[in-house]
Amino acid sequence: MDKIKIITIFGTRPEAIKMAPLVKELEKRERIDIKVCVTAQHRQMLDQVLELFNIVPQFDLNIMKSKQTLTGITTRVLEGLEEIFEMEKPDMVLVHGDTTTTFAGALAAFYKQIPLGHVEAGLRTFNKYFPFPEEINRKLTGSIADLHFAPTKGSRDNLLREGVNEKDVYITGNTVIDAMEYTVEDNYEFDNEELNNLNYEDKKIIMVTAHRRENWGEGIENICTALKNIVENNEDVEIVYLVHLNPVVKDIVYKHLDGVRRVHLLPPLDTKETHNLMNKCFMVMTDSGGLQEEAPHLGKPVLVLRDVTERPEAVEAKTVKLVGTDVNRIIEEANDLIRDKEKYLKMSKAINPYGDGLASKRITDIILKYFYK
């Protein structure tokens, strides 16, 4: 057959980080004609990743709107992809993870009967509203996919329990580990001077992100209350909170933490800056999914500010700990790591279950085998 035409689709920064090394690997293969389509569900943060990895999309739906809804995102992606698929007639579509772009991209491929590969398949919390809408996005995508690239054995097992044919499921590791090979540098200098001026040797710098939809309101309020207590009762601690641009999150964070001594409120960093801050910091507190995979690769303990996680492998490996959004629980668990060196070392030296940096190569090899049997 002629070259395999593959279209990769992603629209948010986390998707882009994890798809970028796969795009770069696909570009290396002579038998593959790779085209990139971005939906720009998140515009600014997506563009930062594209620039970092030197990826120029062939198609950009540019769908982002102020106060966009899930319905609006879904319909704009479906309509935009229909035109692209009719024109390009790809042999396969690749989507990643669990965003609304992911589900809409999978559905658009299904409507055109195009084979679908799902990268980072099989993550589950088994609660359709936590995280919302991601849990249902990934389950529906899994119902459509032809090839399932599961990052871990646990993810594969989830798919098999749901009736997915074993021959269509592959354990590959997580491509986010591949991405960090491009981004983390020794003696890194930040663009932000506030970060360059932090004392990473003598202070315990805690990196924080918290923005997920299920934490809006009381959850973010509780997280901020706990962070204020932690920094006020540990003189050797400084907090760097990367505050999401969404006013629903930003307004609460600034109300509680703006002006608090040793708390640094910064806008989201680009991927390279984020990875290097993780590399330098003491530990991470987050409700992000991706950071649960990335930080342990760098030996950083993670306190997960959620009640459930679709990444139980990290909990089992003891690289992360679920603490939820209860104020007292957050304070207690953070203080344990700050004050108990043995507990800290036990978490920081646990083996990361998410792979060895070769996931993109494995996925590409599997795709080639799928077409060249």
TrEMBL record:
GO terms for molecular function: UDP-N-acetylglucosamine 2-epimerase activity. Residues 24-367 form the UDP-N-acetylglucosamine 2-epimerase domain. This is UDP-N-acetylglucosamine 2-epimerase (non-hydrolyzing). InterPro entries: UDP_GlcNAc_Epimerase_2_dom, WecB-like. Its EC number is 5.1.3.14. Pfam families: Epimerase_2. The keyword Isomerase applies. It comes from Clostridium pasteurianum DSM 525 = ATCC 6013. Belongs to the UDP-N-acetylglucosamine 2-epimerase family. Keywords: Isomerase. SUPFAM superfamilies: UDP-Glycosyltransferase/glycogen phosphorylase (SSF53756).
